Amino acid sequence: MDAASTISSEKNRIASRSPFEEVGPRPYLPSLRTSPKNPSSRNYGDRFIPYRSSMDFDMAYYLLTESRKEKEKQNTAAASRSSEVYRKLLDEYLLKNRTRILSFKSKPPEPAESILQEVCSRMARQRRYIPLSSEKTLYVPELIDDYYLNLLDWGSSNVLSIALWNTAYLWNASNESTSKLVTVDEDSGPVTSVCWAPDGQHIAIGLNSSDILLWDSTSGRILRTLRGVHQSRVGSLAWNNNILSTGGLDGKIVNNDVRKSSHVVHTYRGHQQEVCGLRWSDSGQKLASGGNDNLLHIWDVSMATSNAATGQRQWLHKFEDHMAAVKALAWCPFQSNMLASGGGRNDRCTKFWNTHTGACLGSIDTGSQVCSLLWNKNERELLSSHGSTQNQLTLWRYPSMVKIAELSGHTSRVLFMAQSPDGCTVASAAGDETLRFWNVFGDPEAAKLAAKKSNSGPFSSFNYIR
Fold this sequence. Notes:
It is built from 4 helices and 31 strands. With about 475 residues, the protein is of the alpha+beta class.
């Protein structure tokens, strides 16, 4: 029987089968190929029906994708190794092992830890304890109660000088010893100003007779007397290396080179009355002068003389804003071109000046006569001493000029202030004939290791006040 007749008979048999009849084994159907590739092989059909219950799809997915992921990891690792090798070659041959191609003048941002430490440090400084009473009080009789004089100075060798009528005394802060430097005669005295040279060894002393004495404090001998500089008392002094500037009741300011026999090198004329305040800037380029004529002048050493015959120079700035005598002067330690000035009883103001542009940066009414000004060397703070009615020392925060503390104890106007070399302790002398020491600007580490001070205080020849 051929294949066509077989298929026809099978179709007829299936068509005649009743519904729901049990299906027996599938009959053999020969291949429809007319010319099979392998005639000897048996062919059971051209369709495969899978048995899904025996298949694991999770395993199949894993087998299909795992090899691809492994290849991607290998490719990534290889690319990373290649990038590292490339970077090293670039550093070695092109960048010469430099860490940055561009270099900036400003520092890179600090890490968060450093910023946090700085904030904590600032908060600790703001919370520092400021004693409101003096640590030590000394009786200093015959201290002249004169607003226009400058009778107190603290040298770089930690020795304090103070003038009591005709005598200049030295107090060594390291060992609290006291010595008398010089007593002038009645015709020359009293002493009207004292000022240490930058070396802390030599000291200038201005007299009522217009003479200026130069002393060596170490050997205790006089080195030179400058005469004929002024026509009357010398109430203000200021050093600029080997140049000693002197201000007198005659309104003149004279620069004296103490190394030369003809010591007068420059003369500044701008005040009509007594020069009561003199301060050189830290750079030594500018001199500030205040007078009883309510004027404040800024002089620049680089400016040419306006009169070649007399050597007189023209001021850089002339400020007329104060309404009383200008004695208190202080150059800012953190902004070199800024000056603070204080006015007398009819002014009561502290003003701040930009000495480069001549602009007034600000002014505050302190409520009383400003006698002296001192900047804190470590913080943005300013200390001022005052006259009536409270005769106090006031600590201000700059630039807000908020009062931080008021130090009271003096019963008369606080005429003079001087700052220790470490910048922490301030000495103040007042018309009540007392010298007080204040720990207002902080406590240095060296002071914590110092021995406890004895009850026998300095100025042993005077009564010691607790």
